[in-house]
Amino acid sequence: MLITTNTFKEIMIMENTSIMPTIVKLMGGKNNIKLVANCSTRLRIQVASPKSVDVDTLNQLKDVKLAKVADHELQLLLNGDVNKNYQTLIKTIGFNEDGRKKRQGPIDFITRFIGDVIMPVLGVITVCGIMKGLLILALQTHLMNPKGGLYLSLYAVSDAVFYFLPLFLGCTTAKRLGIPQFYGGLVGAALVYPTITGKALHFWGIVSRSRYVSSFLPVILIVALMAPIFKWVQAKSPKVVRNFLPGLVSLAIAMPIGLVAVGPASNALADGFSWCIQWFYNFNPIIAGAVIGAAWMYITLYGLFGIVISVVVINIFNGSGDLTLAVSIFNVLVVAGASLAIAFRTKDSSLRDDAYPACVTAIFGVIQPALYGLLLPRKRLFRMTALASAVVGALAGWWGIRKYAMGSGIFGLPTMLNQTHTAFLPILVNALISFVLGFVVIFMMYRHDDDVVGQATPDQGKKKQSK
User: Fold this and answer.
1) At what angle do helices 285-301 and 263-283 cross, to 10 degrees?
2) How many Å apart are CA 172 and CA 239, to the nearest integer?
3) How far apart are CA 323 and CA 14, in angstroms?
4) Between the CA atoms of 461, 376, 440 and 347, what dihedral angle is there, to the nearest 10 degrees?
5) Average pLDDT over residues 331-343
6) What was the pLDDT predicted at 462?
7) Cα 464 from chain centroid?
8) CB burial of residue 364 (10 Å; 0-12, 13-18, 19+)
9) How far is it, in rounded angstroms, from Cα 81 to Cα 98?
10) What pTM, to 2 d.p., does this model score?
């Protein structure tokens, strides 16, 4: 990409108002950008054509401390906070929060919709899942009395979000669809009402019987049915009745239809998905765990996490437990160990400064800094880490480990316990093996030529020093 003197002057003028559009232009434009990520210090951009990136001119911009290209990755060290720079860049080029191009396909829409509905409740689900696991540990170690008031009160808190899950998801679904949240919450509350859930309901000769406690798909679909009716009645209603008529009409129409058809059908669909997943897990748990372990880094890399979660979350909510999410916890510990090994072996201080924080964030469940900053530019190490993840995934399948609530990193370990599966020792051992195996494999396989991956050329370094 050739930059003339006049163009450079225009760039410097642009720089004074906003540096990011200038950077995007010098990267070859928005269409040259495939993926945006960041580590603790710099932006890491996957580009389609490295030759379209004008590294020399980028290094001359006053707000750019360092720009370098290795393989198909552009590394940018900018002035200011790296997270703010990341947000500015993805807004400038119109990418999603995960640093990927926005897609409009039906699968992406469905997974994004389910994510928008579940994510607001995810924090509460995580807290309750961890609390439930810790309560089980407290009973095993005889620290609490199972009939005592403290245990019973804390257990009620930990279990309530799962029992009344339709109520929570009804609120978030209604908000996502643009109607008052409490109407969605009312639908969820009605589904778990004692005279509704698990009872035989007769509608004009049709008998419907479904259990909605801890379910998530029926309430989402019933509220989705109610929302357009609510909006249409609201638009047609006189102002004097607009406060109550939309809710009255939409509930009167949507609830019977939901209980006769939508609820039972969605429960059957969820059960079908769950059966297929459990069949895959149970056919050969060792192979299933190995496949999931090897694939998880690629799932994260290609942004397929949302699709996977949308399916396997069924096993969390119905109480059967999920192997995929359990293996994902051990995968992040493998990545944490691999990051620490890179920090120990590298002689590049800049790489070491990236590796230590990447190890810490991976321990707490966030592997993107290690994935994009350390392993992806070093494909051999990436593949070895995936292989180590396959090993610990196979061990998890062999031990029969499942995850019964949401939670990431080391805080996800207690969520692998429930009233039936109370053995914490296999979980702890597998976690330690994961971290140690990731560390040992990468420590042994690391070569000093891995240090030079992604480094600036000597000419670029001289230019930077001469400024």
Assistant:
1) 110
2) 26
3) 51
4) 0
5) 94
6) 40
7) 38
8) middle
9) 18
10) 0.65
d(CA 38, CA 358) in angstroms, rounded, equals: 11
Residue 90 has pLDDT above 80, yes or no: yes
Q: How far apart are CA 357 and CA 13, in angstroms?
A: 36
Q: Which two tokens stand for residue 9?
A: 């002057």
Closest-CA residue to 53 (of 37, 77, 78, 33): 33
Query: CB neighbours of 355 closer than 8 A, spacing ≥ 6?
Result: 339, 340, 342, 343, 346, 370, 374
Name the pLDDT band for 200 (thresholds 50, 70, 90): low
Contact indicator for 117, 176 with CB cutoff of 8 Å: yes
Buried b (16+ CB within 10 A) or exposed e, 415-436: bbbbeebeebebbeebbebbbe
Alpha carbon distance 38, 35 (integer Å): 10
- Are the CB atoms for 281 and 320 separated by under 8 Å? no
Domain architecture of the chain: domains with CATH: 5-102 (3.30.1360.60), 106-276 (no CATH), 284-452 (no CATH)
Q: What is the pLDDT of residues 438-458, one digit of tens each?
A: 999 999 998 877 766 644 433
Q: Is 39 a catalytic residue?
A: yes
Residue type (1 letter), 137? L
Q: Residue 2 is which amino acid?
A: L
How does strand 200-203 pair with strand 206-209? Answer: antiparallel
- Cα 323 to Cα 36: distance, rounded to the nearest angstrom: 30
- The candidate with the shortest Cα–Cα distance to 312, out of 278, 360, 351, 264, is 278
pLDDT digits (tens, 9 = 90+) for 253-286: 999 998 888 888 887 887 787 788 888 888 899 9
Q: 277, 312 in Cβ contact below 8 A? A: yes
The residue from 39, 128, 171, 359 that is catalytic is 39
Paired tokens of 39: 């580590």
- Locate 353 and state its tokens: 């400064």
Q: Decide if 114 contacts 310 (C-beta within 8 A).
A: yes
Q: Nearest-CA neighbor of 96 among 108, 82, 79?
A: 108
Say which residue the tokens 């804390």 belong to.
154
Helices (H), 94-148: 106-140
Closest CA to 106 of 310, 296, 295, 317: 310
